[in-house]
Amino acid sequence: xxxxxxxxxxxxxxxxxxxxxxxxxxxxxxxxxxxxxxxxxxxxxxxxxxxxxxxxxxxxxxxxxxxxxxxxxxxxxxxxxxxxxxxxxxxxxxxxxxxxxxxxxxxxxxxxxxxxxxxxxxxxxxxxxxxxxxxxxxxxxxxxxxxxxxxxxxxxxxxxxxxxxxxxxxxxxxxxxxxxxxxxxxxxxxxxxxxxxxxxxxxxxxx
Length: 207
Description:
Residues 31-58 form a coiled coil. This is C-type lectin domain-containing protein. Keywords: Coiled coil, Disulfide bond, Signal. Residues 88-201 form the C-type lectin domain. The protein contains 4 helices and 8 strands. By secondary structure, it is of the alpha+beta class. The protein has helices spanning 2-23, 26-72, 102-111, 122-128; strands at 86-88, 91-100, 115-116, 137-146, 149-152, 178-183, 186-191, 196-201. It is 42% helix and 23% strand. Strands 1, 2, 3, 4, 5, 6, 7 and 8 form an 8-stranded mixed β-sheet that branches. The protein has 2 domains: 2-72; 86-206, Mannose-Binding Protein A, Chain A (Roll), CATH 3.10.100.10.
């Protein structure tokens, strides 16, 4: 009976010694190092993921604000590109000296993110005259909505009566749509199918 107990104790001691011997073996030491390195790498990976998420959120927010801004001013992005715009005291303008009907002039300006010029004051009238080389240029003014009532098609404001030439507008007969052209610092009305040069203007919000 005693011998069996001694054998059992010896067995337990030998097993314990074997375990400790195995723990101190080069293989187990390398394994522990690998586990430690894995934990460190996992921590770094988690940190990198958190930073990436933060950066992603930052970029998304910035992009959203940028796109929202551009969306509100989409018509300004390419306004006047590839045109020789001229800056005057009252804004940015482009004069085209090719003689065309009013509708063609209006379409040209719109296709470049601009609009036919609208003139509200005598000082702007004098400024715009600086870029004229021909005698007459189309503006955005027309009475197409209400015969005899001339408005600027962009702002919908009525043409200042102080800017008309003497005896203008004469409307060329009842019911006939006419458009406004600029001649020598005064406004005239003419049939819209007449052909003149034209002046485009940069929208105010784009300047």
